[in-house]
Structures are given as C-alpha cells and as structure tokens.
Amino acid sequence: MLSPAAAVANKAALERDAGDRVERLITAATDRIHQRRHPTRPRMRALIASGGARLAWQDIPVPQDPGPDGAMVRPIAVATCDLDRALALGATPFPLSLSIGHECAAEVLTVGERVTTVAPGQRVCVPFQINCGRCLPCRAGLTSNCAEVPPLSMYGFGMGGGHWGGALADQLAVPYADAMLVPLPDGVDPVAAASVSDTICDGYRHIAPHLPGLLRRDPDADVLLIGCLGRRTIYSPSVTLYAGQLALALGARRVRLADGRPEVRAAAERLGLEPLRPRDLRHATPAPLVVAATVSSRGVWTALSLTAPDGVCSSVGGLHRTARIPAIGMYTHNASFHVGRTNARALMPGVLDLMAAGRFHPERVISTHGALDDAPRLLARHYRSSDIKTVLSAA
Questions:
Q1: Helix or strand or coil: residue 107?
Q2: Helices (DSSP H) in the chain: which residue ranges?
Q3: Across residues 81-98, what is the average pLDDT?
Q4: Contact 93, 3 (CB under 8 A)
Q5: In angstroms, what CA-CA distances link 293 with 165, 208, 215, 274, 354?
Q6: Which residues are within 8 A (CB) of 142 and not within 5 positions of it... i.e. 6 or more apart?
Q7: pLDDT digits (tens, 9 = 90+) for 35-50
C-alpha cells in the first residue's frame, strides 16, 4: 500500500500524458533487458542507490543517443541535494533502486546536428529538470512543468523521475541541449557551480522575485529563514544557507536564520547571517520576507505567523499531504504564501551572473569535497551524518 505522500506524488506524475510516461518506463525497461541479453552500446559506470543508503558502482550501458537536439555530457562535479539523504534511505515516494545524483556541472562530449549554443569540450551547468525550451510553460520561464515531457521528468530519481539517468555516472544524455545547458562563465569553478542545477536556484527563487521590491519599499527590510525547529531532521540545510547568502548578495542588511541544529547555526554565522534558536522565535519580530525552509507543518505555521503585514512567505515545500495555515491572520495581514518547485533552468543565468561578479560564493556552504571515484564511501558518510553539502569532482 502506498503512503499518502507516495500516492500524491504518483498522482502528480500521471496528471497529464500518463500514456507517454508509462510508454517511456516500458521503453526503458525493455532497453535494459535487451542490452543485458544483446548489448549494442558501450558500457559505463553509474552509482546505484538501494535502500538503507547502500551505494555501489554498477556497469550499465551508456545512455541512448539523445538525437539531433541533444548532447552527451560527462559530469565533472556532482553535488548532493537536501533531499538525497532521505532518498537514499528510502524515506521518499521515489522507489529504489535508482541511478542517483541530479546536481552537476559537466563537460560536453558530443552534440546533435541541430545544437548551436554549446560545443564539445565546453563546461556547462545541467538543470536537473528536463525541459524543451519551446513549449508555452518553458517560454514563460516555468521550466519545471515543460509540456513536452511527462510531469516530474528529472535526473536522479529513477522511475519516479521518468528514467532519465543520474548525474553520478560517466555520461548523461541531455535531450534538449540548446534549451537546457548553460555555459559555465569564465572563472567560475565547476565545484562551486554544481548545485546551480537545483538547490542554489531553489534558494534563489525564495529571494530574488520578492526582495528587490521589498527593499524599494523599505531599505531596512529584513529576511527571516525558518529551518528545522527540532535538533534533527533527515533533510540537509543547504537551500536555507544559499537563500541567506543570496539575500545578502541582493541587498538585505539583516538576515536571520532559525534552526535547532547547532552545526547549521554555526554555518549561518560564518556566512554573515544572524543565527537564532527556535525558542528565540517566540519573541522575534515579524519579517516582510520569510522563507519556510522547513518540511514540518509546525514550521510552516510558524513561518506564516511571523510574516509581516503585506509580506511574503515562500516555502520549500515538503512531503506532507496536508498542512495547517493561519488563514485568517494571513488574510487580515495581506500576507502572500508561495509554495512549489523551482524552475531551475529559468533561474540559472541570474545565479551564475552573481557568481561571475563575485557577489555570491556558494562554495562556502560545501562541507565535504572529494573525488568522484570515492563516491560510495563519501556519500554513505554524508547520508549517515549531519554533513551539509558534499561535492564530488572528477580528476
């Protein structure tokens, strides 16, 4: 029997183009069987995650040729996502086993005949969501809901993401190279940029659409980040820390971060944020921009309760089926609540511009950097510890 979260995720995945999604899954399964019995493509290694954070390199066929609009890339820096620990431990709706990894910077190996914006040898950032760049949602910047692929099409989530492969592999197929791949600016380290694929842009979307207007209204407008209200959680805190860094980069004079984990408060202080314990929120002043970087219903309620009149509360979302909100208080305060997934590809250029200008330094959030060859050991340690962000790079 599916958990409530899994049932909701499956419903979302099949809400449109269900036939296309099922056909893709059948095609992927058929291809695996065929390549096992009658191999026609070269082999490569890919890191496979099974339940209980079991990780191992496996020998699998290289991806199928993505066609004239696509490209093949080699991941050269791969980062953990805040969800990866829960994913590897089997605590998400996404079935295991799967080829893991969805945040990466890469080197272009080959391109299709219709590709014009990238070339072999170029270093690029690869968004974790598959998007065509041509459909109505993509043209509107809503790249997380590309109409040309089934819902929730993304790297690193196995069958739940549509079997697009994982970034912890020797090669990754990109079906829409011109639309998806973003050249890495000169001077930007691939290790620093690996999380631009997802969590950095997730932090950016909570800040960039809202903060400039709030600062025009009040130059002293501050930002309040609400993280874990307990001492432990299965989720990592990098989105919260990136959001705080980006708020400072975009002009906020004061950024507070409340989290029950001492290591997160210490990291926040190193980044120039004002750390708070959850109990400090009892007497905290409301903020015009609050980021609910919490996956608990209590945390969402707290964040909304501390959103100032005419303010904005932006939520990272979560895996709970429902959550209570202080609706009458929000109504009387004219508070806005934003919840949803990041449109990573649409936001990547803005983030990379800040990095290239030296205004944003995501490498300061990285807690472990190691060799891609050592991925099973380093990621197993990451999943079983309070490590914030692990990045693995190729030699």
A1: strand
A2: 4-13, 18-37, 84-88, 136-139, 158-161, 177-180, 190-193, 199-207, 211-217, 238-249, 262-270, 297-305, 327-333, 344-356, 375-383
A3: 91
A4: yes
A5: 28, 16, 21, 16, 22
A6: 343, 346
A7: 788 888 899 999 999 9
